[in-house]
Design goal:
- InterPro entries: Hppk, Hppk_sf, HPT_dom_sf, Sig_transdc_His_kin_Hpt_dom.
- One of its GO terms (biological process) is tetrahydrofolate biosynthetic process.
- The radius of gyration is 19 Å and the shape is globular.
- Strand 6 and strand 7 form a beta hairpin.
- Helix content is 51%, strand content 15%.
- The protein is built from ten helices and eight strands.
- It folds into two domains: 157 residues, Alpha-Beta Plaits; 110 residues, Four Helix Bundle (Hemerythrin (Met), subunit A).
- Strands 1, 2, 3, 4, 5 and 8 form a six-stranded antiparallel sheet that branches. A two-stranded antiparallel ribbon has the order 6-7.
- The chain is an alpha+beta fold and 286 residues long.
Length: 286
């Protein structure tokens, strides 16, 4: 099994939907997504006249060799309308291979690590969120250090507009599209996943509450890291981003006094989230 890091990007059409569909196809054709960053809105790099991109980094486990991985990625891009007309042109979905284990590959059509990743803020920012300590096998420098010394001044911002507009009265919208995609019409599978989420998440929250109360920031970061993928899986991106912020603050000791407030907010919201999921479960089972 190989560990790979990919960067997804879109600046045409429904950008969020292209990212979502891209992740779904990656899960189906390449392998399990183990970690995903927040989504970032970024200035177009190389051709600044283009519309802004949405970008997201993902860590994937795959059995595909590197050459087959590239072919599969091209097939995914093509299936979602990608046209390779201009270098640095607009695209429905672009998937770049950033790392493949710690291999260094130099072929006419494939270079790994990606040869420009160390020059691009829109790559390093989401990548540093999920793999800050990973070392570039050629530059022998960590991702977080590459980001800290980066000269690229094009803006990169967390994409929160859509997410924040869905937060009302301390509630989060549940987006079941990803779960529906991988379930492929199997309602029992979705019900099972909802049951597992409702059963396991409160246990994780108790562990997180204990770690925060004891100001054990290492444990806090570890538990928050464990919870994040379940939130992404069930389709509550706003909650996943808040949990990622708890992890980051605990890991970096960045105003850890704010963590309890973030946690209390999520804890209150989740009572309603569980109710929403139970309603969805009931509708699926009827």
């Amino acid at each position: 099994m190989h560990t790979i890091y990919l960067l997804l990007g879109s600046n045409l059409g429904d950008r969020l939907d292209y990212l979502r569909r891209g992740r779904s196809l990656i899960e189906r054709e390449i392998g399990k997504i183990k970690e995903s960053s927040a989504i970032y809105q970024t200035a177009s790099w190389g051709n600044t006249d283009l519309a802004d991109f949405l970008n997201q980094a993902v860590c994937v486990e795959t059995e595909l060799p590197a050459d087959d991985l590239l072919l599969t990625i091209h097939a995914i891009e093509k299936s979602l309308g990608r046209e390779r007309v201009l270098k640095w042109g607009a695209r429905t979905l672009d998937i770049d291979i950033l790392f493949y284990d710690d291999l260094v590959i130099s072929q006419p059509d494939l270079t790994i690590p990606h040869p420009l990743l160390q020059e691009r803020r829109f790559v390093l920012t989401p990548l540093a969120e999920i793999a800050p300590g990973m070392r570039h096998p050629v530059l022998e420098t960590s991702i977080q250090d590459l980001l800290a010394t980066l000269q690229d001044e094009l803006y990169v911002e967390r994409y929160n507009n859509t997410i924040m507009s869905k937060e009302t009265n301390n509630n989060f919208e549940v987006d079941m599209s990803y779960l529906n995609d991988i379930a492929d019409g199997n309602a029992e599978f979705i019900i099972d996943m909802i049951d597992i989420f409702i059963e396991q998440t409160p246990v994780y929250f108790e562990q997180l509450a204990t770690a925060i109360k004891e100001k054990d920031w290492t444990a806090t970061a570890a538990v928050a890291h464990k919870i994040k993928p379940t939130l992404a899986f069930i389709g509550v991106e706003a909650a996943r981003q808040r949990m990622a912020e708890i992890e980051r603050k605990a890991r970096d000791l960045d105003h850890p006094e704010e963590i309890e407030e973030q946690f209390n907010y999520l804890n209150n919201v989740f009572d309603r989230l569980y109710d929403d999921l139970r309603k969805i479960r009931t509708e699926l089972g009827s």
